[in-house]
Amino acid sequence: MTDAQFRKIAAIVHQDSGIILSESKRSLLMARLNRRLRVLALPDYGAYCDRLDSGDGPEERRHLLSAITTNVTAFFREGHHFQSLGQDVLPAMITQARAGRRLRLWSAASSSGEEPYSMAMTLLDAFPDAANHDTLILATDIDPEMVERSRRGHFSAEAVTPVGAPRVKRYFQPQGDGYDAKTDLKRVMRFGELNLHDDWPFSGKFDVIFCRNTAIYFDSAARQRLWSRFAAALNEGGALFIGHSERLDGPAAALFQATGTTQYRRNATPAPART
Ligand SMILES: C[S@@+](CC[C@H](N)C(=O)[O-])C[C@H]1O[C@@H](n2cnc3c(N)ncnc32)[C@H](O)[C@@H]1O
């Protein structure tokens, strides 16, 4: 893959997803695209770039993202969600949690952990003593290897770059060639394996659900069923964050109010009519 080809593809990936493909990801990109070249019977990456420019380009960009994003994640990815979580969603919930109410956040496709750890940092920034209250962030994924990585909480120096130096200092400690999440951060987190299409083993409801860049891989019936299950799993006023290229469709859409780009609040269920 030439420099120009890499830059072109990286620019498309960034434009479509906000994901930055650093030079160190070039071999990963090549490995992922090799499969795609075989499927399309294309001879090389130049021919693939031509396809991205052709009439098939828009469709191919979706395949490109799928090839790239299987487990791809990043700290504070789609940063506006974390701003909104910290500024608009959590403050009232934290006030209630301090008064004894249960507070539950869920990263429903947490990959290697960057998303739930970003949620945890956002929470602890505003609620440093969260661990002393009934407050938890649940991180689940279908991929056991990813769950194990999240649980371990070790990240490369490159991965923690978007965290920023003050938060790295506060929430991580250097370990080998990277960083380990500190116990304070992990104390409010729980990790587990869960396929979103299976039954969910939860006894209570959630206040915040992040399910980003995953439902896009589901067919529309499965996706709409998932939105309905999230609606049922959220408390009234609870917040749902979905991925940049996803949208809330189907019957559940009426149960939510949009509060920003790909973010929603669960409506109150109307009280039953008095007889
Ligand atoms: C692209 S990553 C998204 C990670 C994170 N949510 C983000 O936006 O940065 C997609 C994740 O969804 C997980 N996944 C795919 N199908 C799933 C399913 N049926 N149930 C739970 N997780 C699933 C994959 O293992 C992968 O870790």
CATH architecture of the largest domain: 3-Layer(aba) Sandwich
Major sheet description:
7 strands, mixed
User: How helix-rich are the residues, as a percent range?
Assistant: 40-55%
Averaged pLDDT: 92
| Structure annotation, total helices | 10
**What is the CATH domain class of the largest domain?**
Alpha Beta
Low-confidence parts lasting 5 or more residues at pLDDT below 50?
Answer: none
Whole-angstrom Rg:
20 Å
Distance between the terminal alpha carbons, to the nearest Å? 71 Å
What is the chain-wise order of helices and strands? HHHHHEHEHEHEEHEEHEEE
Give me the CATH fold name of the largest domain: Rossmann fold
Structural class: alpha/beta
